[in-house]
Specification:
With 422 residues, the protein is α/β, with parallel strands linked by helices. It has helices at residues 14-25, 42-54, 58-79, 84-103, 110-118, 120-135, 162-173, 205-215, 249-257, 268-272, 326-338, 361-371, 393-400; strands spanning 2-6, 32-36, 141-142, 182-186, 189-191, 197-199, 220-225, 246-248, 278-282, 291-294, 304-318, 345-348, 352-358, 375-389, 403-410, 414-421. The structure holds aspartic acid and magnesium ion.
Length: 422
């Protein structure tokens, strides 16, 4: 059995959905668990609906939802013939749930409504794609992943109840493969025991694929992306970025930790635990080798570059000249935890603590307000954080040339510098 994950970009047009069908046709007779995201930027569009609704702007919420409805209906109409009517009924039902929510007054948390509304993105895309594949001669069994992935009610970042989900998958999904080569489902979503929908964190479909792979003892996971392979830098920032043919779990988890937008950071653990290799492949050019990720050690790796822009440096100094110790750090990290902030780099000095963070004004304002009770806080904006793994001096010099270095941390494998324009 293989697990395939198709992200939003791989299903964002009629042609790309047709392309997905041709990829599946390349694997005749194979058992495939296909995990699919919402089409294109649907999740962002649904987020806007939730925001409008929660801000009391019901008309706007409806209007935005109608746009999403039209767009999906258009895709379904274009792709389907005999299955159109039944698929349309399914789409209408999904939208009706969202519409009735929007009609009510908001009495629960933003995150709760977020999950109830945003979850329809993957339900819509998979309903259309499943119906289309049937018509294209690719029989498949559509399932609602919310019936299998039990989560807690930590809306927007829900945690999977592993034991219950595992037994549901074993009991109910495994038998489906006796009659069907392909079982098709949604990434990113789950449900609580009260059957309220939950989401697993943005870009969480990779993680869903990895969880299924673990639970189904898959031989391999394929993540189909719009890039040639995992690259050693973001090609938008570094035009001479190169594909990496082979990586291991350890390297990928480090890359994701430092901010490389490769694979959702939670994806690796379920795979590592069962030693399941992951193949990142290009859905536009499936003949390319992509990147093969495994559990073995690697002798040579290219330099891997991650450049995070729009960084903010905050320096927290004690007000009474007392040392920064456990007590102060615990207070600060409590605030970070509450606000779901994860510093990208930290450094301690005698009476101050420095944290480098993504500059997200909504969170930073609360952070500064809360921390100012105990500390003097100084901020510096507009910085960039460069991380190079497997660095060499020449590359380091090239990438930092003409910049002011504000902070520099280094291990034999990784160097990180916080820079401002020189
Ligand atoms: N559709 C969700 C998102 O855009 C999940 C995913 O694509 O992995 O974040
Ligand atoms: Mg996506």
């Amino acid at each position: 059995m293989k697990v395939f994950k198709f992200g939003g970009a791989s299903v964002n047009s009629i042609e790309r959905i047709q392309n997905l069908a041709s990829i599946l046709k390349e694997f005749p007779g194979e058992k495939i668990m296909a995990v699919i995201s919402a089409m294109g930027k649907t999740t962002n569009a649904l987020e806007k609906v939730v925001e409008a609704f929660y801000n009391g702007n019901r008309d706007l919420a409806f209007q935005l939802l109608q746009q999403i409805k039209h767009q999906h209906a258009g895709v379904a109409k274009e792709l389907l013939s005999i299955n159109y009517i039944s698929c349309e009924a399914k789409l209408i039902e999904l939208f009706a749930k969202a519409e009735s929510l929007i009609n009510e007054k908001a009495v629960r948390s933003f995150d709760h409504y977020y999950d109830q509304i945003v979850c329809i993105g993957e339900l819509l895309s998979t309903s259309i794609i499943s119906a289309y594949l049937q018509e294209a001669g690719i029989p498949n069994h559509w399932v609602d992943v919310r019936e299998f992935f039990l989560t807690d009610n930590n809306f927007r970042d829900a945690n999977i109840d592993w034991n219950t989900s595992q037994s549901r998958v074993k009991e109910n999904i495994v038998p489906l493969f006796q009659n069907s080569d392909i079982v098709l489902t949604q990434g990113f979503i789950g449900a609580t025991k009260e059957k309220e929908s939950t989401t697993l964190g943005r870009e969480g479909s990779d993680y869903t694929a990895a969880v299924f792979a673990n639970m189904l003892d898959a031989e391999q996971v394929f993540i189909w992306k719009d890039v040639e392979a995992v690259m050693n830098a973001d090609p938008k920032q570094f035009p001479d970025a190169r594909p990496i043919s082979e990586l291991n779990y350890n390297e990928v988890i480090e890359m994701a930790y430092y901010g490389a937008q490769v694979i959702h950071p939670k994806t690796i653990k379920p795979l590592q635990n069962k030693n399941i290799p992951l193949h990142v492949k290009c859905f536009l050019k499936p003949e390319l080798p992509g990147t093969f990720i495994h559990n073995r050690s690697l002798n040579t790796l290219p330099a891997i570059i991650v450049l995070k822009e729009k960084q903010l440096m905050l320096q927290f100094s004690t007000k009474d000249f007392s040392f920064i110790g456990e007590h102060n750090l615990i207070m600060l990290y409590r605030i970070f935890e509450q606000l779901k902030i994860r510093p990208n780099l930290t450094q301690n000095a005698a009476i101050s603590f420095t944290a480098v963070l993504d500059d997200r004004p909504d969170k930073i304002e609360s952070l500064v307000n809360e921390a100012s009770v105990f500390f003097d806080v100084q901020a510096m904006k507009g910085l960039s954080l460069l991380t190079i793994r497997h660095y060499n001096d020449k590359l380091f010099e090239k990438l930092t040339e003409g910049k002011n270095i504000l902070l520099h941390q280094q291990t034999p494998v990784t160097v990180q510098v916080l820079m401002s324009e020189g």
